Amino acid sequence: MIKKQKWVLLGIGLLLATALFISIRKGQNQATADESVDGQETAVAFIGNLSESATASGTIEAGRDATLSLAQSGIVKTIETAVGDVVSSGDLLVQLETAALERAVLSAQADIAIAQANLDNGMDGASDTAIAAAQAQLDSANARLNRTINGATDEEIAASEAAVRAAEAKIWSASGNLSAINEVSSSDILAAQADLDAALDAQESAHNIWVMLADCEEDADGTHSCTPSDSDRMDSATQQVAAANAQVALMQARLDDLSNPDSNSVASSQAGIASASAQYDAAVARHNALLADATEAEIASAKADVASAESNLHAVLDGTTETEMLVLETRLAQAQTGLAEAENALTDAQLLAPFDGVVTAVYLNEGEMAAGRAIQIVDNNSLEVVLSVDEIDVGNVRVGQEAIITLETWPDVEIESAVTAVAPSAAANNNGIIAYDVHLSLGAHDLPILVGMTANADLITANREDVLLVPNSTLTADRENGTYSVNLVTAGADGERMITAVEVTVGLQDNQYSQITGGIVEGDELLIGELTVPIETFDGPPRR
């Protein structure tokens, strides 16, 4: 609730029996009466300034703050700030991983290059290569049409018959290979065994010569310990042994093949026969089709191919149409849009400070997926006081109204302020009290003010300068009639002091002084407090 406070720029002095009080009247000292009436204190009406104020409490808030989020999702690579850091507008706060985004930009750039090249080709017309390819396609279609209508030539028939005979020869060749594998005589096996025996004898002879030249001695376990020499004969003997070993291996393999035919070789030969048979059937079918007359459907298909090839050649020679150019231009525009989106996504992988301020919260960790809020920042240069003013008093508050602010942290420091805004609607309050947010600026100060501090504000709601003032203690209120009066102290002709009750009209008031707009004048001496002796009622005209 707002309570009334005083703002008196000029004071009033009260001379008491035991103390002297000083007041200010436009910068000059104004003395009170130096007498008392039957021991009661008095005060003198004086000219001064009076202000009325309303006091309210609130908190320090930031006029500009922001809870920032990343526009692009992704894995957090680095966090470049921490709570309490002072940052400037444009400073990097959070960086996401960008490898995939960079690849997307490169891909979009390649799409633009392709689309631009296609558009350039469309504008430049067909190349010689494109024209030659279209002409070759038309020539091939015409040849097929002629062959379809007129039938095969003698050369084509002869070539087809040769293809049939070649396919038939492959069948006989594959059959011969299979027969050779399956038909092995005993004499072939005996001959192979004899060749192997001869190779073994040659191997043994070569080995003996090598052992002799190497000066080998037989060990107890039947092995030999040899000391090969460096003579030319030793090298020749070594080569002879290697050749004999290879010959034995070859003869052994040949004997094994003849004695036990390889199942893989048989299967391979059988597959060869099947493949040759299929090729033969295909060659026969093509030859028969070549000899047969073309059907109407085949002739129609060949004519359609010719028409299509002619249309394609004309299109190549005529160049790109307006519709085709529009398509090419649209594709280029789409590619450019794709690049812009890819570049924006790459840019959005960074979170930058939108203004100068202080980081108050960090909601992300490096290595996690960025989602929702990321950084909170407050502009300390935009700090303000936000008061909650009751609906009864908010009518006396206006934008531009002066105020004095004190903080609970520094209660003795006054900060000049002014009302900057009054909320157009009531703030939510669970207690059923209707109140409005009133915003006040913070004037010049050197205090380290923080968001959330409690602030008290004196709002100056009215101000009177050079008006007649009296202490509130000199007024007597008639609540029933709604009037005020004072006890005026005067001196008679004989010097005797008299007290007279005088009705006065009251203007602005605070908790110490009241403005008097009628009934008394400056310098009048007034009794303080209730009268303890009988008084004389003043029946004369009001003193103004």
Question: With helices defined by DSSP (H or I, 4 residues minimum), what is the helix count?
Answer: 8
Instruction: Outline the low-pLDDT stretches.
Output: 1-34, 535-544
Describe the oligomeric state of these chains in a short phrase: single chain
Quote the average pLDDT.
79
Identify the CATH class of the domain at 15-50 and 466-537. Mainly Beta
Alpha carbon gyration radius: 59 Å
Shape: elongated
Strand content: 25-35%
- As laid out across the biggest beta sheet, the strand order is 5-15-18-17-16-19
Helical content (DSSP H or I, runs of 4+): 25-40%
Q: Which fold name corresponds to the CATH topology of the domain at 15-50 and 466-537?
A: conserved putative lor/sdh protein from methanococcus maripaludis s2 fold
Structure classification: alpha+beta
CATH architecture classification of the domain at 15-50 and 466-537: Beta Barrel
Distance between the termini: 37 Å
| Beta strands, count | 25
* Main beta-sheet annotation: 6 strands, antiparallel, barrel
